[in-house]
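ok so i was messing around last nite and threw this chain in just to see what happens. nothing serious, just curious
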Amino acid sequence: MALKQNWIDPQDDVQLNEESVHVWRASLDQDDRVTNDYLGLLSRDERERAERFHFPVDRNRFITRRGILRRLLSRFIHCAPNQIQFEYSNYGKPRLVEQINTGWVAFNLSHSNGKALFAVSRQDMLGIDIEFMRDDRDLLSIAAAAFSSHELEQLRALPENLQKEAFFSCWTRKEAFIKATGKGLSFPLKNFDVSLVPGDRVEISRVKGHPETLFSWQLEDLPVEAGFKAALAVRIARKNLQIFLWNYLEAPLE
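result:
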């Protein structure tokens, strides 16, 4: 699978085919006009969810990311953004309802500290994660609770000045993988290993009880702003997949 290394502005004729994964990056901190426009695209249940946020900044970011998701998906399923309907798996992973998903489009999204990534593909098992690399956490304690013994050993062996970046590399790779499986945190984080040492190949090296799955997954780091880490995981039906990186550009709403 080939990863395009630079984020570029999209063309009008962006095509989603069997050989591609498209990733958009966006800022969720928009002015009130944009946020209100996105609010008009949301379903009643999304509006109710938005109202449950205590802080206005969190409410507005939720509205913006759901509005952006609807606009992106509308490109590929020929459905107006405000008519898009979602359903959820038993593990809570969102997907388009079958009746409108005529192009077999899959998606996943992640957000952190006002930044968001949206992945869209025709490959059904798709996961993405972005994390702001905060300084106010005891990373080794978190790793001891969440990482496999092999990952924890590798993290502790690194010089202290490399541990923060390695921790977030490991975390985003693991999150992207479990999101792609569709099982989320019900898939034990300790039951598989990902690489984390800077400079090593980005990969899943072990899945407990399922060694055969190593040959059907691709794991990639994504280049994002300083202070963030991000990763994408996809189960590969085709070996020649390309990952395209797009800047999400605000446009007049229909």
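not much to say yet. The helical segments are 32-39, 44-51, 56-77, 139-146, 149-157, 160-181.
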